Records
---
Amino acid sequence: MDYLSRVSKVFESAEEIDFDDYSKFVLMSDCHRGDGSWADSFSRNQNIYFAALTHYFNRNYTYIEIGDGDELWENRKMTDVLYEHSDVFWIMRKFYEKNRLYLIYGNHDMVKKHPEFVEKNLYRYFSERDNKYYDLFKGIKIHEGIILNYKKTGNKILLLHGHQVDFLNGSMWKISRFMVRYLWKPLENLSIKDRTRTAKNYKKKNDVAQKLTDWVVKENKMIIAGHNHRPTFPEYDDPPYFNDGCCVHTRCITGIEIAKGNITLVKWSVKPDEKGMLKVARDIVAGPCKISGYFQSN
């Protein structure tokens, strides 16, 4: 099956969510939440991420995580990730309790496509303090893709991680996982970075973006993806391929907001205010642009 067909297969089987100009979504991906070791790239940004999600929860956004939320290539046990980042899962559970949480799996958390894994590891968690289990995401479904259906025009936006067009990290993911778990994680603990990953390799980044753009052009649809960690926000005249970036940039996290009929690429980082006090701040990187502007040619 060629890469265009793989994306089409996701589109054809994806659950649809209707939205309008009153809907509010925030899309993030590639958190790679780990076990707190030196190889856990998320640890340095966990406070920024928690502050951002708190902001969105309080403003009634729906949070959609577009894959690789948890680093399950380097880490065998989901329980280690839950324990290390319990505060993050606490705020995510608040979204879930309000029916405002959707999760898409990526290549690094591909095991979430198996319902038995999800039931065993994500339905509940064990509190060592209380010595008992509590509900986490009981009954949750993890998606390969989701379609946002714009009710005003009937246009559809495909949300998927993007590994579907990456042979090594998609079709051959088990081999890649073996290499990461037993070769690159020990090296990362020695501060040696894995340069073979799509996120670390500029050619692979461009290849993934181009292949997804090929599908956008062929099918005359809009895509929002993750995977290559490269934030992308096209002009109206360009093919509507968007990328939300990642949560493991050196000093920030990025995401895409859809609200009030607009789409915006944002960055969250720690920066000083006018008094020199450090705070977590949101900055607009691109947009806001009317989302309907990307549907004019559809």
---
Amino acid sequence: MSSAEKSRAIIVLGMHRSGTSALSRTINLLGIDLGNDFYQGPVNPRGYWEHEPVMRINDELLKQFLGFWTSPDPLPADWLNHNITLEAKEKLLEILRRDFGESPLWGLKDPRLCVLLPLYLSIFDELNVEPMFLHCIRNPVDVALSLQKRDQTEVEFSLVLWLRYVCEAFYHSYPYRNAFVSFDSLLSDWKASVTSIEKQLGHSWPNDIESSSASIEQYIEPSLRAFSNVDNALEGEGDIFEWITESYSLLLKVILY
């Protein structure tokens, strides 16, 4: 691939425990190159489908500035120009050139990207990459319950994190090409979901949907959804619950549009 030719990257965005792993594996089976060096964690035996070197750098950046990804605090105003960020950027440029430099259509998934997206936009610009953003949306109550089981995180705190991650992902990706899918829709009718994504992005999957069907159906199964808040109820008092309820309602309208 010539240096003047733009490649495209599908960036999967979503809060932790929102179904981004299932979505990433699905588009991987449809031909999106996610690399080969995947993070293998104990909680998700079916795979996270995160490029581990990239994820490690993202995690370390958040630790350096905020202590951990669970911090609800904003990044410092000057974080993009900080030496820590500039050093991380050089490492990321080297990794992405090495692993995706010859790939015309590739992808990345890491929930931390929601917060770190301004850094990656500058990286994509330097690499001459056209990013497309794929948002995976899940009921925030289901997300919070899943985090409570995995990390013993308070439900109310997880709801705040959900709002922070989703809002940052939308804000920073808004000027670019975006697609939206709900985790519930992906599990209930993955073919309709990937067809919708294809139309939203205006880009065909490298692999035919029907020919990929057996592999995807083997991967997509009900056990991927540990919690399902069928009535979409968000219970609680105060402004934060109103903001979350309103935000999730708006997201559903975007997905169903």
